[in-house]
Amino acid sequence: MRTDIFARLDREPEPPKIEVPRMTRTRLALFGGTSAFYLAIVVAVLLSTWLVTLDWKIMLFRPYQQWPEIHGFLDYYVVLGQRGPTAVMVAAWLGWRSWRQHTLRPLLCLGAALLLLNVSVGAVKLGLGRLGPHYATQIGSAELFAGGDIFPSGHTANAVVTWGILAYLATTPRARRYLSALSAVVALGVGLTTVYLGTHWLSDVLLGWAAGLLVLLALPWCEPVLAVAEAWILAARDRVRERLRERRRLVPSLPVASGGPRPGFFPPRPPVPEEPVREPVREPVGLAGGRRTPVTRG
Fold first, then answer.
1. Strand partners, 292
2. Which of 17, 178, 200, 213 could form a disulfide with 204 if both were Cys (CB 3.0 to 4.6 A apart)?
3. Which residue ranges in the chain fall short of pLDDT 70?
4. Alpha carbons 263 and 251: distance in angstroms, whole number
C-alpha cells in the first residue's frame, strides 16, 4: 500500500461519500442579507447619493498616479478576475477531481455557477447601462442608461464565483475554511485593483462582490437539477459504450499472417470454382473405320 504523497493522485476505487450542501437557515439568512445589500447599492446609485459622490472622489484622486510603482504588478494580478483564464484553470482542477472521485458534480457545479453569473450580472449590466470612469461625461453624475456595461463589476463577481466554487466543493471543514479565506482575499484584491486602475467605480465593485456571493449562496437550490443531469449524462455514456461493444462483437476476428493484409469489416468473398479443363480425345493415326490403311512404298 502506497503511503507517499503521490498516492493521493491515484483514482479512488469507489466514489467517496460527499455531503452535498443544503439551503440551511444560516445560508438563507446570508442570502437575504446579501440581497438587501445588493438592492441598497442599486438604489444608492440610481438616486445619485453619497455613494456616487465617493465614486467621483476616488476617480479624481487617480490611485494609479499616486502609486505608479505597483501598476505593473496589478496589471497581471487583475487577470485572476478574467473569466477566460480563471475558468480554464479552475475547470482543469475540477476535471481532475471529477475523474478521481467518479463524479461529474464538480464540473456541473462550475458550469451552473458561471451560467447563473452570466445571466444575472449580464442582465443588470445591460439594463442599467452605466459608463465606466474613463468614459464618464459629467462630473457628479451616476452615468446610468448611457449604453455602458460596467455596473456591477464582472471582474469582481467572476473572482468571487470562480475561486469561491473551490471552497463550496471542499470535502472537509478545514479545507473549506482555508479555501474560503483564500477566495475572499483574491476577490477583494481583484475588486480593489479595478478601482486602482480606474476601470470601475467603487460602487461597481461593491455590487460585484454581492452578485458573486449571491450566486454561491444559491447553488444548493441547483443541486437536485445537477444530480438529475449527472445521472442522465452517465446513462448516455453507458449506452454509447454498450453500442461500441456490440459493434466490436459483430466484427469477425480473422487470423492475420505476419506481414499479410488485415481483415476488413466485411467478410471476404468465397472463391469462384474453376471449370474442369477437358482434354481432347486422341485417336491412333491411320485408323479409319477400324481398318488399317495400307502404306504404299515408292
1. 287
2. 200
3. 1-10, 12-14, 16, 251-298
4. 10
* Secondary structure string (H, E, C) spanning 252-293: CCCCCCCCCCCCCCCCCCCCCCCCCCCCCCCCCCCEECCEEC
Alpha-carbon radius of gyration of the chain:
38
Grid cell in block for residue 186: 483574491
Q: Give the tens place of pLDDT for each residue, 143-171.
A: 999 999 999 999 999 999 999 999 999 88
CA atoms within 13 A on the CB side of 122: 6
Please work out, in degrees rounded to the nearest 5, the angle formed at the alpha carbon of residue 163 by the alpha carbons of 22 and 159: 115
pLDDT at 101: 85
242-262 pLDDT tens trace: 888 888 887 665 555 555 555
For residue 13, the 8-state DSSP code is S
Cα dist from 165 to 22, 37, 90, 135, 279, whole Å: 15, 21, 9, 33, 90
Residue 111, classed as helix, strand or coil, is helix
Got the DSSP string for 205-245? Answer: HHHHHHHHHHHHHHHHHHHHHHHHHHHHHHHHHHHHHHHHH
Question: What are the residue ranges of helices labelled H in the chain?
Answer: 25-46, 50-61, 63-66, 71-77, 83-101, 105-128, 154-168, 173-197, 202-250
Give the chain's length: 298
Query: Cell 479595478 belongs to which residue?
Result: 194
Burial zone of 11 (CB within 10 Å; 0-12 exposed, 13-18 middle, 19+ buried): exposed
Model pTM score: 0.78
CA distances from 201 to 119, 121, 132, 205, 230 (A): 21, 16, 7, 7, 40
Measured between its terminal Cα atoms, the distance across the chain in Å is 114
